[in-house]
Write a structure and sequence with these properties.
heterodimer, A: 345 residues, alpha/beta, Nucleotidyltransferase, domain 5, 2 domains, five-stranded mixed beta sheet, 42% helix, B: mainly alpha, 0% strand
Chain lengths: 345, 317
Amino acid sequence: MRANLGCAAKTSALAIRADLSKSLRLAAIDVGSNTIHLLLASCDEGTPPRQLFRRREFVQLGADVADTGRVGPARLELAATTLRGQVAEARRRGAAALAVGATQALRSAANGREVSEILAERAGLEQVVVLPAQVEAQLAFDGATFNLPPAQTFLLLDIGGASTQVAMGPARGQCSDHSLPIGSGMIASLAAADPPTSEEWRLMERRVAELLPDLVPPLQGTLALGTGGTITNLPRMLGRDKGAVLRLRDVEQVIELFRELPAILLAERFGMDLERVRLCRGGVLILAQLMDLLGLSRVRCSERGLRDGMAMGLLARGPEWWKPLGAAGVEFMPDRDRSVASVSV
Amino acid sequence: MSVSEPLSCFDLAEQTTRDRSEVLRWAAARLPLVSDEEAVHDTRVALRRMRESILGFENCVASVDRAKARRLRKLEAVLGPLRDAEVRLQLLDEVLGPVAVWRDRSDDPRLARAYGTSVIAKPGDVTRPGLRGLETQARRLLADLTAAETAAAREQMLSGPALRTLGKLSAEPKIIHSRQSSRLARGLAQKQLPALFRRASRRHAGEGDLHRRRIRTRRLRYRLELYGPVLSVEHRSVLEELRGVQGMLGRFHDLAVLVEWIDSAARDQRRELRPALRRLTVRVELEQESAKELAEAELRRLDDAAWWQSAQLACLG
């Protein structure tokens, strides 16, 4: 299997590796359940990727999959156009190589493989890799913990649109991970009113409680990091800087805001995308439950995550960027029926 | 089908009100006893039965005592919050388990070995029984709030005029001789019961259906008990069936009230406790749903089998 190489498609992985002495512009695009998100970063060996440019568009592949189990033609068209635009943007801005990976929406869609092939073809890529959950978790963990002390154990919560990864391990090392079948998009879609009615909130809360398995708090001293669209947007809603530490009461404070105010007002007040505000309603409910069930008194927001891990993987492993360190032998086919409890790398 | 002796309205009213008045006095005497968990419930039931006997024999009761029915109802409402809190305490124990069943051992190295680095409990793992996260604290909070409400309601009941009123209302109403009271009580039952059976069997569209049927089933049951001595013996099995349905409807209602109460109680609590309170609410809701399904299935069974009509026939012949 080969990596997705864009304007530098002909550039071999060897050439990339040979060029480690100087910074490379690499692009990572994550085809998520809520968004398609491009990161263009300057990458050097031994340092975390330096973000140069980001572009995010709400395509919400996960909405189709939740409704029908498949990605419909209209959504596919939108995704293809968006991805093509982002690939072109990355190329225009000088990306030497691209890593494009899809997450839970395509993992669970009945036509996920077909969609990934169409997306690759329409964007002029060799492949859009449908990332297995454990690979996604490891890449996000790599991205979030790259510049953190290696002796320290971290727990990473990555709340996506249709799945949530809970990964734990030493910084930069191999993590144990669990993919929980719950995401911000699937929860937020249960509410139609704005702000949601109390019945809708109850419905969302109930769905979250039903979908979260029995969780065991990590050992004392484990530091928790959070990433994903919901978590990275919380600091601004609380008037804090990026990378802030969140406590459970902070998350509940945001939930109060969501209960009281319509999305349009919140979007204006905090300078957020309207769609992101709507999705965050589901995400914060998941985060609050995870923090309580895992006994996490605080979670540090990480601006780094999956896309940084993908860029680092591209730098370190070239075409095989999606093979995380130490994860030899993982199966790279979407495994739709995997039970949560049995997953481990 | 055997029918009991032909009692006049006067005889039955006198006998019933005398018995019920005595039951009410006994229940009222138990009311101040904190340790008597059923005293409030028994008093409310006794109040309802007394009221039913006044309403059922309205034309046999002296006009001065007829006004008692409304006062009995008011008094029953005064005892409502106390009984609600008692029921809530029982339901919390039943649905959410007793408080403090779990001790945090997440830093126990033996457990760490068992779990490895996993945060998700595997089948067969020694998972924590009962309450998770801050549920223990949330659960205790609910118990504390309920206990405080119980104490306040009890205090209000004991210090207010309720007990004195209860003493007055438990006196036997005066049954008067009249043309109506000399008629057969069975005739009165035959006049009143069909409408009550019809109302109890009526289905309603929407959310309030179970609530309305709960009230009407209860009304029917109390009236059947009132006229029991002049009904056929088959009325006892009808009463049994009604008690069963009423129990199911009552449980659904109590759980619905509990969900609302947790919801409102959660609003004023520490934010950290809210996720746990939400999970506890979900657990009660699930219980409420299964209670609803049971009650609906039971009503459907009775409706489909035209039980109400045959029960009426069995009681009245």
